[in-house]
């Protein structure tokens, strides 16, 4: 929903706008935050950026290590742990 429509639906809404540089949205702060998030995620598994705000995270190795350290008695236990 666009801002003007949101204001009509909810007059008390506080909308925040993205900074603009050279007539376009300045996403530098957003990109920097994304780099930090990816660094944190990559410490837990294989991480691949798909776009500015999407990441594929493979936790297979981390899950195997977790199961080796503390094996559960049944598949139901794995589900409950997750």
UniProtKB/TrEMBL annotation:
<dbReference type="InterPro" id="IPR001126">
    <property type="entry name" value="UmuC"/>
</dbReference>
<keyword id="KW-0227">DNA damage</keyword>
<dbReference type="GO" id="GO:0071897">
    <property type="term" value="P:DNA biosynthetic process"/>
</dbReference>
<dbReference type="GO" id="GO:0006281">
    <property type="term" value="P:DNA repair"/>
</dbReference>
<keyword id="KW-0539">Nucleus</keyword>
<dbReference type="InterPro" id="IPR043128">
    <property type="entry name" value="Rev_trsase/Diguanyl_cyclase"/>
</dbReference>
<keyword id="KW-0808">Transferase</keyword>
<dbReference type="InterPro" id="IPR043502">
    <property type="entry name" value="DNA/RNA_pol_sf"/>
</dbReference>
<dbReference type="GO" id="GO:0016740">
    <property type="term" value="F:transferase activity"/>
</dbReference>
<feature type="domain" description="UmuC">
    <location>
        <begin position="1"/>
        <end position="66"/>
    </location>
</feature>
<keyword id="KW-0479">Metal-binding</keyword>
<dbReference type="GO" id="GO:0005634">
    <property type="term" value="C:nucleus"/>
</dbReference>
<protein>
    <recommendedName>
        <fullName>UmuC domain-containing protein</fullName>
    </recommendedName>
</protein>
<keyword id="KW-0234">DNA repair</keyword>
<dbReference type="GO" id="GO:0046872">
    <property type="term" value="F:metal ion binding"/>
</dbReference>
<dbReference type="InterPro" id="IPR052230">
    <property type="entry name" value="DNA_polymerase_eta"/>
</dbReference>
<dbReference type="Pfam" id="PF00817">
    <property type="entry name" value="IMS"/>
</dbReference>
